[in-house]
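Risk register update: the risk that structure generation would not scale has been downgraded. Supporting records follow, first protein first.
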Amino acid sequence: MSQATITELYSAFAALDTQRMARCYASNATFEDEAFSLKGQAEIMGMWGMLCDAVQAKGRDQWKLMFSDVKTNGNTGSAHWEPIYLFSATGRIVHNIIDADFTFNEQGLILTHRDRFDFWRWSRQALGAPGLLLGWSPFLRSKVRQQANANLRKYLKAKGAA
């Protein structure tokens, strides 16, 4: 059941279908990566919705998502996934390489989701020269995190969810 949840999550994300993605998360789920620390399905789906809307608005031709190595063991799981997308803030193409870890509740819904990726590699692609020069620094990580969270708050407010 949990393996099917991971497969459904990434299949839905590849199709930019946030309604299907939402059905994969428990209401009290948490999500964490280099840009976000989110609590609850509403915040998590706000992030995915914001990303999907950005791809649909511009960059649909560049969008691609591949996933593999979906594994589960009891109430834990993992997957490898690689999105290729247009980073809307700079108009640069990004090919991110991400490893995800999950825990699941009794119903097989995602309870915790943690994505890990090489921030410096991502920042070089997404931001160009600033990412190359500062992508290793806590300063740039903090700025990216602040901007991502400000964008999410603005998106949630516009959607009436905040």
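Supporting record for the second protein:
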Amino acid sequence: MRLKPVFRDLTTGSRLLMLILVILLCGILSLSVSYLLSVLIWGKSVLHEAGDPEMINLGFMRLTQMLNQVGFFLIPPFLFALLSERYPFSFLGFNKPRIIHFFAAILLLMAAGPLTGYLAGWNERLILPTELSGLADWMRTSEDTASKLTNRLLNAPGTTSLIVNIIMIGLLPSLGEELLFRSALIGIFRKIFRGIHLPVIISALLFSALHLQFFGFLPRFMLGLLFGYLFVWSGSVWIPVIAHFINNSSVVIASYLYNNGISAIPADELGTVSSGAGVALSTAAVVLIMFWVYYTRKSSPELSPVQQESSGTIS
């Protein structure tokens, strides 16, 4: 689909600023709508309970979480692409994926469990210098609050809660975050830097940092790298979306099975191993699978129009 975008002639830096502006405007709108609906449904008292993870209304949490995912992550990339790109859907990576890359994404998430668990444990044990003790205390408090909120959502009983959690934690983040951090940001950064590595690394850093969970920074950064390379090498955003969805939904389903006595494995132990050999095998498998994606990547001797725009060869 080819359009005549209003802001096609903006510089790359201006496009980045425009994306940030769109995110802020859509985010503020989504926050306003979620608070307004919450007050209409549950009354003003629900806002006073929002600061207490033990007392916060689950319905309010779910509504706010889902609307914020739509407002901060899902809508902005579409608006940005429609306003600035001649081929908005190609720019966002809505291209037909190869089946082999779907299988690679599934295998990658299965293989990465021990490595992710090792990085999470190592990250958890990091200690900041004494001079930064105040910052460390703030980060720990924020992490504990986020963990309590997540656990309340995951521990909610019933099949309905399972379905809502899959949509809220699995589906919406996998679509919105991949479109923003992979499609939009990598697309912009590829117009600034030569090659793909710096765009992938920067987008992964932002992906992990903006979750505001320091003690999960390293495993999330690694996942951001994997999702980024899946995107640029497969040529389709659907591949990292499915990988992201599997990663998040597996935690939701594992929590549901554990809380209902169906499984004896807690969600935070899913796929992890305690031996160094297991971590080494996981690392080797991840590297091999990514090489597989690389050598089966989409390539053509001639760039398509959207690829030419992304690489800066079209003015």
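The longest helix spans residues 12-42. On this basis the risk owner (M.S.) recommends closing the item.
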